[in-house]
Amino acid sequence: MEKFALIVAGGNGSRMGSEIPKQFLNIAGKPILMRTIEKFSQYDSSIHFFLVLPSGEFDRWKNLCKKHHFEIQHKLVKGGNSRFLSVKNGLSQIPNTGIVFIHDGVRPLVSLKTLSLCEEMAKTKGNALPVIQVNESLRIIGKDGSHAVDRAFYRLVQTPQTFRTDLIKRAYFSIDDNEFTDDASVFETLDKTINLVKGNSENIKITCPVDLKIAETLYPVQG
Amino acid sequence: MEKFALIVAGGNGSRMGSEIPKQFLNIAGKPILMRTIEKFSQYDSSIHFFLVLPSGEFDRWKNLCKKHHFEIQHKLVKGGNSRFLSVKNGLSQIPNTGIVFIHDGVRPLVSLKTLSLCEEMAKTKGNALPVIQVNESLRIIGKDGSHAVDRAFYRLVQTPQTFRTDLIKRAYFSIDDNEFTDDASVFETLDKTINLVKGNSENIKITCPVDLKIAETLYPVQG
Predict the structure, then answer these.
(1) Mean pLDDT throughout B83-101?
(2) What is the ipTM score, two decimals?
(3) Which of A21, A33, A106, B72 has CA 20 to 30 A from B80's CA?
(4) Cβ contacts (< 8 Å) between A210 and chain B: which residues?
């Protein structure tokens, strides 16, 4: 079964307080985005990579690849005005047979174990979603103030959200609502059950300077 | 108005994979628990400290205080078999007038700003709870599988949970259920509204080796 990785990196880095979009900032001396692609390639070097970037960033990325002698083959895909449209653009280039890992470009700390769990579950059940437990008390905000809820019933969702390509393409191409920020929610419009697998707690999404400091400390995640 | 800090450190460190309870492990060269108390003392040196420890750990703590020349005055309180009972033991020693910060001993990264917001809100409204937004997609687990929920309506709860001492004592001493793991939930049994204030994202609870690495990187939090 062919495997595809759709690496989504459409962000503009505004929360980083940096001129450079966050996916291009360095971790352990190389752009975050390269570290992310390297991790998947380390997991399975036969994966076909599709990298979604704002088209205005293609040149910057190509120059970075030259500078860092980055040689993992990948195809560039033009980002859309929302995450939904960016993923849709990427999926339109991926065949109908196989599985696809849809992954945030700014999550270089995904573990090999998480990738393996996602792949196995998606192969057997059609989809997989890596999640972790909530470690803090949780409250819900309503019209009459906030109330404690039992965190044991909640999970935090990571990526790669992993799917049989035919199914996730059917979901994405049968709706037009581009407010979705999460592939599993799009997939659920097919009325199918989502299968949860255990993620790894280090697999944080790097969105602010504190995250970058943390990621630099944790990199690389073993196993 | 007198101020009290009830620092709760009853844990046994089993998740740390360490023989030494987590609150005694070092951050920047000193036990986590000292760093936590130092932060509060830096915020306001007139705070009266009550430190809840398992009684079997009193000697270890006293020796550490000698070794590190730790001179911030504090009273030791014997922990109970649950967090609820530990806090109750601590509250029984605190007068009825004033405000009390109830804080996890393993959160040394609370900011001065968070402490200030908690104090101001508790003084004017009787209680304050520091919370942060949920940065990941969130799912709820039910009998028929899991479903996406809108993370915008949820908040993650930190400490110090801060209260007028008379109110929180009334709440703790009017119930016997020791399953509560969160002071705000105990307080809510009084049918009072909980007031949320903005916490600081660095204020993590150190419960596993990854947390300790992260905390070491972030320490000290400024402001």
Answers:
(1) 96
(2) 0.92
(3) B72
(4) 201-202, 218
**Nearest chain A Cα to B141, which residue?**
A153
pLDDT confidence tier of residue B176, bands split at 50, 70 and 90: confident
Question: What pLDDT score was predicted for residue B19?
Answer: 78
Q: CB–CB of A155 and B146 under 8 A?
A: yes
pTM for the whole thing? 0.93
* B15 pLDDT more than 90: no
The whole-angstrom distance between B212's CA and the closest CA on chain A is 11
Phi and psi for A93 in degrees, rounded to 5? -100, 0
Q: Is B137 on the interface with A (CB under 8 A)?
A: yes
